[in-house]
User: Which sequence fits this backbone?
């Protein structure tokens, strides 16, 4: 049995190919690079070089080649949340979309998934020459990685994040338009008693912005959200729903700051016998269908992840190619779907059995 170290040591070199073919190393390089016709290398010599390379199972050292050419045709993708969970529909969808968009643009995609490194180690790895550019997902403005990347020449584009230094381009969904669609949909269905599930302030910039916009939109038309109806999303959903629905005048609609939460709430409603949407309408955000024990399709702001990924790859490719124009900050239009969980504000009472 051949050991891995022995196999690596046996890797053929250009010198060995040249010796077997009886030509110079430069001739081998030209033939294998497809440039033989430019240097008038004979067909016989080409055939000998290719035969020698095949016999020796020669493969070029891609890292050496990329350093010589200045391009690897690889893009890095790093999740600034620094965590990854199994069956994460959002990240599965986004990662796949970036993979597809990268391939369409002629790049391979290197997905970084070791989140045990320090910020300095992450920076050194991302900036180590493996990739032509970096797609950085959802960095916080105070993330030390951003400040380190500012000092590098590595092209970077942010998804769902803005660079406080105004150096890196970004792409994001139109959250302001999305939350306007949410508030309009609620008001059109007659909802004025609206509750919210969101993380604690500061835990998620995305959630903070969505909640801020929703409350502002509703306030503009005279609808207020009681403080007691803004509940942390980490609490037990069934317990929160029982409290809400046991009130004399319970909320008729509940906004969940993302779809994973919305589908969990829908499953809890089914368990508790809460009639959706007759007794309670549920709205989420992202337009993703998470596995849950519910027959419902959540009403939600629809964000096209495939288009978002293509936008990010296209902009990053422009910067890799030497773009020097104004900072590119593109916003993806969104739509809204009522699903099956948004209906008219009802007056049916819930029986807590």
Assistant:
């Amino acid at each position: 049995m051949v050991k891995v170290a022995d196999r690596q040591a046996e890797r053929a070199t250009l010198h060995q190919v040249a010796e077997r073919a009886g030509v110079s190393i430069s001739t081998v390089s030209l033939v294998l690079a497809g440039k033989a016709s430019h240097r008038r290398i004979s067909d016989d010599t080409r055939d000998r070089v290719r035969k020698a390379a095949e016999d020796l199972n020669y493969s070029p050292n891609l890292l050496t080649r990329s350093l010589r050419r200045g391009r690897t045709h690889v893009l890095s993708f790093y999740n600034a949340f620094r965590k990854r969970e199994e069956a994460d529909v959002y990240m599965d969808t986004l990662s796949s979309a970036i993979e597809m968009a990268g391939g369409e643009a002629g790049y391979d995609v290197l997905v970084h998934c070791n989140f045990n490194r320090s910020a300095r180690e992450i920076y050194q790895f991302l900036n180590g020459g493996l990739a032509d550019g970096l797609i950085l997902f959802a960095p916080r403005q105070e993330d030390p990685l951003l400040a380190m990347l500012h000092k590098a020449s590595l092209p970077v584009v942010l998804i769902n994040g803005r660079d406080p230094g105004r150096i890196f381009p970004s792409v994001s969904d139109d959250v302001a338009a999305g939350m306007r669609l949410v508030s309009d949909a609620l008001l059109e269905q007659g909802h004025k008693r609206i509750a919210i599930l969101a993380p604690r302030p500061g835990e998620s910039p995305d959630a903070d912005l969505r909640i801020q916009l929703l409350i502002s939109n509703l306030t503009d038309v005279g609808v207020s959200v009681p403080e007691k109806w803004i509940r942390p999303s980490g609490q037990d959903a069934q317990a929160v729903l029982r409290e809400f629905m046991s009130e004399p005048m319970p909320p008729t609609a509940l906004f969940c700051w993302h779809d994973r939460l919305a589908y969990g709430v829908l499953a809890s409603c089914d368990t508790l016998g809460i009639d959706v949407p007759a007794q309670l309408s549920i709205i989420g955000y992202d337009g993703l269908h998470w596995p849950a024990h519910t027959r419902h399709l959540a009403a939600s702001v629809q964000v096209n992840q495939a288009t978002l990924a293509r936008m990010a790859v296209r902009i990053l490719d422009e910067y890799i190619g030497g773009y020097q124009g104004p900072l590119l900050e593109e916003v993806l239009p969104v739509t809204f779907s009522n699903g099956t969980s948004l209906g008219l504000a009802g007056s049916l009472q819930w029986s807590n059995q």
Observations:
- The CA atoms of residues 158 and 274 lie 41 Å apart.
- The first helix runs from residue 4 to 9.
